[in-house]
Structure formats: structure tokens, C-alpha cells
Design brief:
The chain has 247 residues and is mainly β. The chain contains one helix and eleven strands. The strands form two sheets. Strands 1-5-6-7-8-9-10-11 form an eight-stranded antiparallel barrel. It has a two-stranded antiparallel ribbon with strand order 2-3. Strand 9 and strand 10 form a beta hairpin.
């Protein structure tokens, strides 16, 4: 949990440093673009270790890398500061199969367990944000935004299987009835909660209207799972290419 707090604190500190840098620059130049739109596409990944459990105590793993499109729109009331709206989406799948020797019960011959886990995960986030930007030379801009809004996270098509087998059962002293019972479990859960979103990046203006950039982003939240009172954490960091428009 402390690692999550540290990441959020570091991101907030980075936003503050950008804002202070921008504040230290002159706002006397009124010739600047007031409307900003950034369309971003990239990938993100989950931080930490899962503590999400189903009703029978199975720990649902985190999905790893997923696609992460996003959209930032802002109105700048000064050259360096503005307010706006951030939207982001991520979609990821988890599908893994692990085969290992079953060691919880002693058999005369090796017994193996095949564990399969798969599910789909997606999330939508939308919320207001504070924007800050700082100009370097004629074409380079460093910008950041920080906001809190609504996050909807959903796990669907969850399947967990455990299958036990011993090689060449007919030639061994182990019969199928001696093996642990196979497990097949299906699960799904979803919730809508408050989330924190952060984005920061560097942009190069190809023209007064259009530019390209590279942005890092973060999405953070958590919610309780019933009936076992475990938590599902959404703590994702990503990297995206940005297509920027200024008016």
C-alpha cells in the first residue's frame, strides 16, 4: 500500500514542479492558444501484487499490459494554466496456463496440476483536471494535468480451472478417483468509484495548430469486493504517443 501512496505523491509533486516552473515565467504575452486537444494512444501496465479474492478465496491476478487510448481537452485562461476534461480507457486480457507437480499430497508416482486463469478487464475514466504547461523555445512544450473523476472498472468472463492428472494412469497404481477433484470456477465483478488521473509529457509543435508528443500517464483507485472484504486496486502507469491540436 505504501508503494501506491509513494507513486501518487511523486506524480503530484511532478505536477506541482511543472506548475511552479510555469508560474515563474511571464504571462505578459497574450498571443497564445487558448484551446488544447490531445488524442493519445499507447499501453499501460498494472503496479503491485493482487489482493482481489473471489468468494471461495481464490486470488484473481492482475491483468498486465493493456491498450490505453485517452483524450485531454482544456481551456487555458492564461498562457500557462488551464482547466479541462480528461478521459481514458484501458482494456486488457489475462490468459495463463501453469503446469507443475502437485506437492500437497504424497503419491507413489508424480501427479501434476494444470492451472488455467483467464479474464477480460476494462475501465473507463472521465473527470475534470487542472492543466499546466511550460514553453521552451519556439516549438517545445512540457505539460501536465491532474484530476479526479469517475472510474468504472469491470472484470468479465473470468474462468479458473485446476486439472489433476498422472501420466499413464492405466499402468500406475493411481486411479482417477485417487486424485484431487478438478476445479472450474467462473467469476465477474465491477464497480464505479472515484479515481485519480495524471498525465505529463513533452510536445513538439510542427505548426501553430498541430503537434506531436510523448506522454506518461497514471490511473489510480481501489474498491472493496464482497463478501470477503478484499480489495481490487487499479494502479496503472502507461506511455502514449500524442497528437495535439491548439487553437
Amino acid at each position: 500500500m505504501n508503494s501506491y501512496i509513494s507513486v501518487r505523491s511523486a506524480l503530484a509533486g511532478l505536477f506541482l514542479s511543472i506548475a511552479l516552473s510555469a508560474y515563474g515565467r511571464s504571462d505578459s504575452d497574450d498571443d497564445y492558444s487558448r484551446f488544447f486537444l490531445s488524442i493519445n494512444a499507447g499501453f499501460n501496465t498494472q503496479l503491485g501484487t493482487s489482493s482481489s479474492k473471489t468468494a471461495d478465496g481464490y486470488t484473481v491476478p492482475y491483468s498486465k499490459t493493456g491498450i490505453n487510448p485517452s483524450l485531454d481537452a482544456a481551456y487555458f485562461f492564461s498562457k500557462h494554466f488551464g482547466i479541462g476534461l480528461s478521459y481514458c480507457f484501458f482494456n486488457a486480457q489475462e490468459d495463463q496456463t501453469i503446469v507443475s507437480e502437485y506437492a500437497e499430497q504424497a503419491f507413489e508416482y508424480p501427479v501434476y496440476v494444470q492451472k488455467e486463469s483467464s479474464f477480460d478487464e476494462y475501465a473507463h475514466y472521465i473527470g475534470p483536471a487542472l492543466f499546466a504547461r511550460s514553453f521552451f523555445g519556439d516549438n517545445w512544450i512540457f505539460s501536465a494535468n491532474l484530476g479526479a473523476g469517475m472510474l468504472h472498472n469491470k472484470i468479465s468472463n473470468g474462468i479458473r480451472k485446476e486439472t489433476y492428472h498422472a501420466p499413464s494412469l492405466a499402468d500406475r497404481l493411481i486411479t482417477p478417483g485417487d486424485l484431487p477433484q478438478d476445479i472450474e470456477q467462473r467469476y465477474a465483478f465491477a464497480n464505479t468509484v472515484i479515481g485519480l488521473h495524471f498525465s505529463a509529457g513533452v510536445h513538439y509543435r510542427i505548426s501553430r495548430i498541430f503537434g506531436l508528443g510523448l506522454r506518461a500517464n497514471g490511473l489510480f483507485s481501489n474498491y472493496n469486493l464482497t463478501p470477503n472484504n478484499s480489495k481490487r486496486y487499479v494502479n496503472r502507469l502507461g506511455l502514449s504517443a500524442a497528437f495535439d491540436f491548439s487553437f
